[in-house]
Amino acid sequence: MPRSLLVLLLLVAVVAGSWLARSAMSRWRDLRAAQTYELAAEARPVLVRAGAAVLCLMCVSALGVAVLTGLRPGRVAVRQAVAAVGAERPVPAAPPAPAPAPVEVLFSNVSRPAGGELLQGEVPGPDGRPRAVRVWLPAEYRQEPAARFPVVVVHSGTAGRTADQDLPDVFDGAASAVELGRARPFVLVAPEAPSGTGHPCDLVTAVPQAVADDQALRAAVGAVFRTRPAGPDGWAVLGVDDGAPCAAAAGLTRPDLYGAAAAVSGQYDGRALAAAAGEAPAGTAARLLLAAAKRDTEGLASAREVRTALREAGARAEVRISDLVQDYSADREQLRLVRVAMQYLTEQLPKP
To answer: Are 211 and 249 in contact (CB under 8 A)?
Structure first.
């Protein structure tokens, strides 16, 4: 309702209320005089005028508030009713503020190994401190600009280093597996191993989740690169040599994050890994490849101990052991083992 009309109604109510009040007062005097002289007189006209005057006074109050606040009288009444109800009922707590969006990490070009592109950036680690993360993009990443690629997180077993610094051939192994038609092209992510201990993968004995869950890493990679969504349908994990226990722990502890894990040429603590598998979310089954060269008798024995420990612990894990690779040198065997691992991860992750 326009404010000018409210003012007009207010004036009408004031005039009508004043006239009715004066009329009621005059009638009341006549009634008192009649009673004094014991004359017959009716009290009804006085009561009617007095009631009408009171009603006009209420209208004047409501219209006055409406004019001052610029609101309709109905809105004022509704707000007063809401305030009265709110005073009786507890006010519900405000919903929590949404989590801040992840800060985009800047990755700069390092080199172009194995026909792809290697970039490096800094991402906060589980302890909140920045650490280097290297991302290798296969040649197909540039050739297929609309495609989204699965991810393999490659763990290092040397404090303060990335996996490619320990094993430069890891990118060649991934690329050659694609060239031979044994694997799909993957984006390889190599985070810097935490410092503070000479063997970071020994952390699996105490806190396997420290290497298994890395939300900041997944968010940074997903925000910058065309990768498949983080989860078991698009992400896997790999570890070679000293990094193998980290990959095994990650795959066994968080099968809800990694669809498969491959550990190559490692030495393992079977009981520690069985305990890590016991912390996996209910209803999920881990898939793990333990691969070693045919002449690596110690590594194969350690892999079989892991499988036995998992079975005895009743862990939900599908463990496969590869012991067929042999070549004329340890470097050639390592390259072929990485191919086997990439082929296994390709088979385990669902096709896009």
So the answer is: yes
Q: Which of 296, 291, 290 is nearest to 273 (CA)?
A: 290
Q: How far apart are CA 322 and CA 308, in angstroms?
A: 15
Stated as kind and residue range, the H or E segment containing 130 is strand 130-137
Q: Which of 101, 140, 195, 107 is nearest to 352 (CA)?
A: 140
pLDDT for the residue numbered 87: 43
* Distance between CA atoms of residues 243 and 251, nearest Å: 13
Beta strands in 16-129 (DSSP E): 108-111, 117-124
Neighbours of 61 (CB within 10 A): 13
CA distance 207 to 291: 24
The alpha carbon torsion through 230, 236, 242, 246 (nearest 10 deg) reads 50
Q: Which of 115, 155, 120, 157 shows the shortest CA–CA distance to 138?
A: 115
d(CA 268, CA 66): 79
> How large is the average pLDDT for residues 164-172?
88
CA nearest neighbour of 148 among 255, 247, 221 = 221
How many Å apart are CA 319 and CA 210, to the nearest integer? 22
For 258-292, the pLDDT digits (tens) are 999 999 999 999 998 998 888 888 888 899 999 99
Cα–Cα dist 151/231, whole Å: 10
Q: What is the C-alpha separation between 226 and 222, in angstroms, rounded?
A: 7
Those residues with Cβ within 8 angstroms of residue 128's Cβ, 6 or more apart along the chain or in another chain: none
- Mean pLDDT for the chain? 81
**Does residue 189 have a pLDDT over 50?**
yes
**Tell me, what DSSP letter sits at residue 342?**
H
The length of the chain in residues reads: 352
Non-local CB neighbours of 16 within 8 Å, separated by 6+ positions: 52, 56
pTM more than 0.85: no
The structure tokens listed for 224 are 């910058």
- CA-CA distance, 160 to 151, in Å (whole number)? 22
